[in-house]
Amino acid sequence: MSDYPFPRPSKDQYYLNLAKSVCKRSTCTKVEIGAVVIREDQVVSTGYCGAPRGTRSSQDHGFCLRKQLGIPSGHRYEICRSVHAEQNTIINAARSGTSLLGGDMYIYGKIEGDESTEVLDAFPCFICKKMLINCGLKRVICSLKEGGYKIFHVDEWVEDWKKGDIIDDKFQYGVEFSEDQPTVNKQPIKISAKLEKKMQNR
Length: 202
Known about the structure:
5-stranded mixed β-sheet; 3-stranded antiparallel β-sheet; 8 strands; about 30% helix
């Protein structure tokens, strides 16, 4: 029986709580995302969803550019004013000359607002996921909207993409799967007839 007077969080929950604190610095008007990388039980880098250093954020402008242009969530990230939390975490490590090799990244996400707003399935987008593979992380731990977190092993992502393709991922940011049909905002993702035929013939 534990001698602690209150429940002690696991290390994964502890580090995810740090990412939750980091997300409060986000400058996106839609979501707050925070990330931390841990190596050998040490915080080696953090990052949040925010505009490039010295530039005006969506909060400064007072609106989301992609939303104003009618771009659905999960698309056309090159037009987003923000750098993703995962990317900023990698960039901040590079600025300080810190290796992320073999580390674990914890990502926490929620709808922009106070503590009562909805928690997100903070799965990395495809751009971030490719970067996380290349920087040599071991695990990626993401908050879940239903509570708790999901642990991904990066080497399993690599194996999945060897066998299939990125479009096959069942855990995509902003994407829900219904009967194996990926959707964004409850609308099926449209792919070309040529690609669809190729996928059917695999």
